[in-house]
Amino acid sequence: MGEAGRYMYAISRWVDPAELAELRGLGGAEVQAVEHEGLLAIVSTVGLDEFGEDELSEHLQDLDWLDTVARTHHEVVSGVASRAPTAPLRLATVCMDDASVRSRLARWAPDLRQVLDRVAGRAEWSVKVFAGPIPEPVPAAREVSTAPGSGAAYLARRKAHVDRLKGAAEQAATAADDVHDELTRHATAARRLALQDGRLTGEEATMTLNAAYLVDSSASDEFRAATQALRDRHPDERVDLTGPWPAYSFAAMDET
Amino acid sequence: MTEIAPAARPTGQVALVDLLDRLLGTGVALAGDITISLAGVDLVRVELRALVSSVRAEGRG
């Protein structure tokens, strides 16, 4: 390895160094903690031949590289978050050395402590809602029996179909809002994320809600039960629940 | 592995699109010495757009 830098995964409080040693960072590197006044930056060493500014820009175009880095980042963050309050950092935050890492901890200490207080004892749950199947048009067979007035019949059928589609879209949007409102009541904080394109998720059904909820660890069973109750209330929609995630969506420093 | 990897992960593995949702869009944004900041996010979105067009192309072929 030529020149080296420190890749930062997350900020945390005290973590047993022996437990950190069980984690593997990018390229299989040892995961370490850089400390400043009770704040820990969870880091590992990376080569600047891979994580230098120009190299990063190039690698980000490579989906396999991105896949590996994103998964390793997530595994380290999850490993730390299962042991201590953890504020995940965005992908690819690299400092030149430990002194530089410490200076960032010092500069942002009050904000970082605030984030850690917010996520301590809590986890993020992801909920996605997918709309039910799109209504089929009325079968054309009936057109034959109404042959003399087929133009009018066609228009009526067409209007009925458009009304059904509109009704289905409204129902899907209402269901998504209901799920979000109800789950927000069971969470400390909630965020709606951008809906994902079906071509990336491979889902045929339309996504109507992509949301994250920050939930007390002691209330996770209750949150699961609330999700199940919403499935029963909206049998046409599919409600996907995943978690617990590290509190990615609730670690931004500009939030209160 | 095909080009539509994010959707085609084995069961139990987190989809890349879900990870990127969180690793790029959220989390603590501390500027490092080396930073990809917003420019990096844009690059990734370009990559994802490229992925979308490759899925379309495969569908036509």
Automatic annotation (TrEMBL), chain A:
InterPro entries: GvpL/GvpF. GO terms for cellular component: gas vesicle. Keywords: Gas vesicle. It is found in: Gas vesicle. It comes from the Bacteria. One of its GO terms (biological process) is gas vesicle organization. Transmembrane segments: none annotated. The keyword Transport does not apply. Pfam families: GvpL_GvpF. Its main location: other. PANTHER family: PROTEIN GVPL 2. Belongs to the gas vesicle GvpF/GvpL family. This is Gas vesicle protein GvpL/GvpF. It comes from Haloactinopolyspora alba.
Automatic annotation (TrEMBL), chain B:
It is found in: Gas vesicle. One of its GO terms (molecular function) is structural molecule activity. Its main location: other. One of its GO terms (cellular component) is vesicle membrane. Keywords: Gas vesicle. InterPro entries: Gas-vesicle_GvpA-like, GvpA. The keyword Hydrolase does not apply. Belongs to the gas vesicle GvpA family. This is Gas vesicle protein GvpA/GvpJ/GvpM family. It comes from Haloactinopolyspora alba.
